[in-house]
Amino acid sequence: MAGVWILVEHRDGEIRRVTLEAAGAARKVADELGTEVTAVMLASGLEDKAAELGAYGVDKVLYAEGEAFAYYTAEVYAAAVAELVKQHQPDVLLFPASLQGKDLAGRLAAKLDVSVAVDCTALAVADGRLKATRPMYAGKVYAEVILSGQPQIASLRPNVFDVVETGGSAAVEKVEVAAPEPRVTLDEVLKEAEGKIELTEASIIVSGGRGMKAAENFKILEELASVLGAAVGASRSAVDAGWRPHTDQVGQTGKVVCPNLYIACGISGAIQHLAGMGTSKVIVAINKDPDAPIHSKANYSVVADLFKVVPPFTEECKKIKAAQ
Ligand SMILES: Cc1cc2nc3c(=O)[nH]c(=O)nc-3n(C[C@H](O)[C@H](O)[C@H](O)COP(=O)(O)OP(=O)(O)OC[C@H]3O[C@@H](n4cnc5c(N)ncnc54)[C@H](O)[C@@H]3O)c2cc1C
Question: Which of 151, 169, 259, 319 has the greatest CB tally within 10 Å of its CB?
Answer without folding.
Answer: 259
